[in-house]
Amino acid sequence: MEKLVKAVESLKLLETMKEPSSSSSEKASARVREKISHCLTISTALTSPALLSKVSTADFSRSLTVSMESLIALLDDADLDVRTTAEESVNRVVNALRDTHSGRLQVELYKEIKKNGSPRCLTAALARFSHLASLIRPQKCRAFVVNLVPPLVKIARRKEEAVQQALADAATKIFAALGKFTQESEVRLLVKTCVPNLFDASASVRRSAAATVAAVAALCSGGSGGAESDFLLWTLSTLLDFLVPVNVDGEKGNASRIVGVLLCAKSLVVRIYERPAVASGDDAAILLQRLVQLYELCLHYIGSTEHTVVVQALETLQQLLRTPPKCLRSVLLSPSGIKRSHVFFKQSGALPLVDENAAEEEEEERRMLHDLEAASASEEEAAAREHRGRIQIKEDSIQEEDDGDEVEAEEKSAGEAGATIHPAAKFEGQENADKAGREEKVLEGIGSFCDADLPIIYCARKITLSFLLTR
Predict the structure, then answer these.
(1) 8 Å CB contact between 75 and 125
(2) 407-435 b/e (C-beta count within 10 Å ≥ 16 → b)
(3) CA-CA 20 to 30 A from 143: which of 102, 233, 338, 401?
(4) Closest to 258 in 3D by CA, of 188, 211, 307, 291
């Protein structure tokens, strides 16, 4: 016990001393060796069964408190060897005492999380606390949630990639143990704090934020008796509202926002598909609307000029279609198709995806238009044949006249021909022909999202045209 106390006091003294200059390398090396020696002494003493049997629980808890503070502080030391030794010592103490003194270890690690200090110390504390979270006693879970949420909110606002990655890794384990003891306001606060990180320029920060948001939404019940699905749907709706309605003109400068939303939506879809009850509950209509919105967004962003947006849209679409719920599958395989866009205007509520009356009216209008076009084409063909017959008769009569009359008739005919082929008229006719050609190409091409056909066929056509066929 005396060795432990002396080692802790020596470490505190070394921390208060001024760092030696770079010129005195011998002093610096001696100081590094001394720190490493004290770390080993502390870890050996804390894990020794003899010490546990000789001292009281209260004395050992006090020694453990000051020892953990010293070891964790050394995790941010300037020397790599000291940091490595301190990390090994912390791991050794945690593994040896997790079954007998887990409560004290949890409190000490929580204190370090609350400090929100250097990235190295904070990430180490988050990782160790997440491993011990499953050992928290049920009667203490709510107290830990109340005290842990504010520090986690502050940590989520930090922009260091290492901190965000550590938070994402720890969130799954922490909320797997404490999620049932959270309140709705706490869950919403955590999600809203992490969402801005989805728009960060760093891809690592976006991935970490997506993992954190998905873990919080999936594992926290918010005091609803275990109904985690409520937050899955709410989180998905919150994310999609950042992209709906679609702003075509502003896509180029919002690539990070689009990628982040689609990445997190992909993670949420995985969680939703793991729970069939989500698609059959009271909010099934809203869920169907949001899934169709996500489906249309993926198809829309496949045609983006940003490579990262295209890749993320394809990955999200793949996950969306891998094991779709029955409600979404029935819409995508509906013969009457999806009759309206769900992303180019903001929805105030769930709208019917298939309108049979509208489909019948559109089919009737299409048939009438086809009949009118056929009748017009027949009339134009008959008029053209009659005109060609008249020209032939006129040419025969002109050949029987004298040369002067023939020249005069030819000049008159040339004047009439020149009048009919006016440059402006010719340009207008060419423009109409080009427009008709483009429309015909669209009709004969992949169609559109709102075609009266299986929606999944348009999806396959668009992917094939975009990535498999050369233009």
Answers:
(1) no
(2) eebeeeeeeeeeeeeeeeeeeeeeeeeee
(3) 233
(4) 307
Positive or negative, the Cα torsion across 455, 460, 466, 471? negative
Q: Where are the alpha helices (DSSP H) in 274-422?
A: 284-301, 307-322, 326-332, 356-399, 403-420
Q: Print burial letters for 68-106: b (CB count within 10 Å at least 16), e (below 16).
A: bebbbbbbbbebeebbebbbebbebbbebbeeebbebbb
pTM of this prediction?
Answer: 0.75
CA within 13 Å, CB half, 55: 19
DSSP letter for each residue of 309-350: HHHHHHHHHHHHHHS--HHHHHHHT-TT---S-SSSS--SS-
| Residue among 268, 266, 290 nearest 219 (CA) | 268
The two three-digit tokens of residue 104, written as one number = 């004290």
* Residues 213, 133: Cα–Cα separation, whole Å: 19
The candidate with the shortest Cα–Cα distance to 42, out of 66, 22, 61, 26, is 66
Contact (Cβ atoms closer than 8 angstroms) between residue 182 and residue 223: yes
Are the beta carbons of 210 and 263 closer than 8 angstroms? yes
Return the domain boundaries, the chain. 1-97
Mind listing the pLDDT tens digit of every residue in the chain (471 residues)?
778 888 888 888 887 776 665 556 778 888 889 999 999 999 998 888 877 777 788 888 888 999 999 999 999 998 999 999 999 999 999 999 998 899 999 999 999 999 999 999 999 999 999 999 999 999 999 999 999 999 999 999 999 999 999 999 999 999 999 999 999 999 999 999 999 999 999 999 999 999 999 999 999 976 555 455 578 999 999 999 999 888 776 667 789 999 999 999 999 999 888 876 665 666 788 888 999 999 999 999 998 888 999 999 999 999 999 888 888 888 888 888 787 887 876 444 444 444 444 444 445 444 544 544 454 455 556 555 665 555 454 445 445 545 555 545 444 444 444 444 444 444 444 444 444 444 334 434 677 778 777 888 888 888 888 888 765
The secondary structure element, H or E, covering residue 271 is helix 255-273
End-to-end CA, the chain: 79
Rounded to whole angstroms, what are the CA distances from 66 to 61, 73, 104, 323? Answer: 9, 11, 12, 52
